[in-house]
Amino acid sequence: MVFILRSGDAKMIKSAKLHKMVGLILVLPMLAWTVTGLVFFIKPGYQAAYQQLSIKTYPLSQTLTLQAQPNWQEIKIVRSILGQHLLVKQDNSSRHLDLQTLQDKAMPSAPAVKQLLTDAVRQDPERYGEIVNITGLTATTSTGVELSLNWQRLSLSQTGPDTKLINQLYKIHYLQWTGHQVLDQVLGILGLVLLILLTALGIRLYLKARV
């Protein structure tokens, strides 16, 4: 029995082989996109991982009289466990001033930072536990959460093992696998091109089969 291979059949076989090869190349990225996309859709543990941690404030203990400066855009007075704080926005940047001298408030000592952070993490002891290490304006808790104090804004940020895991999943999802920005961008573009090619070849094979 003799089979005659027509040119159209040969092209279809080539398209099928190319479709198969591109599909094999995209197995790992597609698996990564699917798994991480499912995580982003369900968002398990997001609330704790990206919890907004704030300085604990107390009612002001006395009436204050303050002469605002011409270049101040915003003024905020708060009282923490360390005392009163004057927070101003000046020339679109934040400043933390001494309420008496109106000069930049001195950076807190390590015991003061620990006292401030300990007071803040009491709101969720299950997540934060206790402060176990202080380095400058950053601290580590007994549960492995890293805390950072922005003294000029008198604000806090927290990053736990779960936060780092979710951030790593984002890098995997967007093909940021090497840690080099340019190379990761090339990988991302290449992945999209291959995905478009896979789709186009699939449509072509479907139409050819129907003909």
From TrEMBL:
Transmembrane segments: 21-42, 186-207
Keyword Transmembrane helix: yes
Source organism, top-level taxon: Bacteria
Keyword tags: Membrane, Transmembrane, Transmembrane helix
Record's keyword annotation contains Transmembrane helix: yes
InterPro entries in the cross-refs: PepSY-ass_TM
Name of the molecule in the record: PepSY-associated TM region
Species annotation: Colwellia chukchiensis
